[in-house]
Amino acid sequence: MPRVLPPEKSSTRGLSRFDRMLLERRLSEPIECVLSPVFRDARAEEYMFGPVPGADSASANDDSGADLLAPVLGQPMPPSREQFVFLRFNYCRYRAMHVLRENRGRQLRLEAVRELLRWERLTHETRSEIVRSNLPLVLAMAKRTRITGVDHADMISEGNLALLRSVDKFDCARGFKFSTYACRAILKSFSRVASRTARYRGYFPTEFDPMLEKSDFLDHKRVLVEQDCVSELQSILGQNRANLNEVEEQVIRARFALDSVPKEARARTLEQVGDMIGVTKERVRQIQNKALDKLRNVLQESMLPV
Predict the structure, then answer these.
(1) Same domain flag for 115 and 235
(2) How deeply is 129 buried, as exposed, middle or buried, from its count of CB atoms within 10 A (0-12, 13-18, 19+)?
(3) Contact predicate 65/143, CB 8 Å
(4) What is the maximal distance between C-alpha atoms in the chain?
(5) In the chain, how many domains are there?
(6) Do residues 227 and 160 share a domain?
(7) Shared domain check, 236 and 183
(8) Burial of residue 6, with CB atoms counted within 10 A of its CB: 0-12 exposed, 13-18 middle, 19 or more buried
(9) Phi-psi region of 93 (alpha: psi -120 to 50; beta: other; left: phi over 0)
(10) Distance (Å) of CA 293 to CA 56, 81, 290
C-alpha cells in the first residue's frame, strides 16, 4: 500500500466522527482488492452504480442452508446480483487505492480527503449489504454442525469473523457462489474454536465452580484489622494520648461501643448520649467531631514511618 501522510487538521475539522474513523483506518491499515478488467473502462463508474441486475428476481435455492433463516435475516442474493455487488465492492476499494497511489509520499489535501472518504463510505455500505445478506450462513452452519462441547456464542462469533474475511477475499470472477466459498471458511473457523476449547480443557480439565473458589480469608483478615483498630483506639483512650477531657472520652466510648465491660458495649445514638451527659444531641456531635480530630492526629502520627 502506498504510504500517504495524514491530512492537516484544517482538512478534517468538519468531518463527522464516522468519517474520521474511516479515514484513520484507511491510512493505518493495508488495503487490497480483487482486480477486474472492467475497472479500467472509462464508463466503469457509471456501470457500477447503475441498475443492479437481479434486484427484483427471486432468489434461487442452494445447499448452503442460508434459506433456512432467510425469513429472519433477509433473502440471500441471486447469483447475478451477488456477482454485481461484489464487483462494485472491489471497484470501490480499487478507487480508494487509486487515490492513495496518486498521493503517495504526500500529505492528503482536502479534495483528496473528500474523494477517499467517498469511496470508503461506498465500500462500507456495500460490505454491509453483503454481510447482512449472508449472515444466515453462520447461523445455518452452526445449526448443522456436529461439533459438541463448544459454546454456541463462541462459534457464532468466530463464524462472523470468518464471514467478514471471506467477503474481503472472495473473487466473483471465478464463477463460484459466495455461499460455497464462505461456508468452507465458516466451518474451518468452527474447527478452530473446537481445537482451542479442547486445548483449554486439557489445561483446565474441570469446569469452574464458584464454591471451590469461596474462601473466608478476606473476611477473617477484615475482622483482624477491625480488632486491631479497636485495640489501638482503646489503648489511646486508656493512656489518654489524645489529651481528651472526661466528657470527650465518655462521648467516644458511648458512641462507638468502647466500654471497658464487653457485655455493656453497645453503640448509642447522639440523643442517648445527650441524655446521658445532659446536653443536646447537636452539642454531642460537636464534642464527638472535636474528639475524633484529636484521635485522628494521634493515629496518623503512629502510622508515619520513623
Answers:
(1) no
(2) middle
(3) yes
(4) 101
(5) 2
(6) no
(7) no
(8) middle
(9) alpha
(10) 81, 79, 5
Residue pLDDT tens, the chain, 306 long: 457 888 888 878 888 999 999 988 888 888 888 998 989 888 888 888 887 765 554 444 444 444 444 444 456 678 888 899 999 999 999 999 999 999 888 888 989 999 999 999 999 999 999 999 898 889 888 888 888 778 888 889 999 999 999 999 999 888 888 988 999 999 999 988 888 888 877 776 666 566 656 667 777 888 888 888 778 878 888 888 888 888 888 888 888 877 655 555 678 888 888 888 888 989 989 988 998 888 888 877 776 554
Task: Give the position of cell 445449526.
Answer: 143
Among 52, 39, 79, which residue's Cα sits nearest to residue 174?
A: 79
Whether the CB-CB separation of 150 and 48 falls below 8 Å is answered with no
User: Quick one: 188 and 233 in the same domain?
Assistant: no
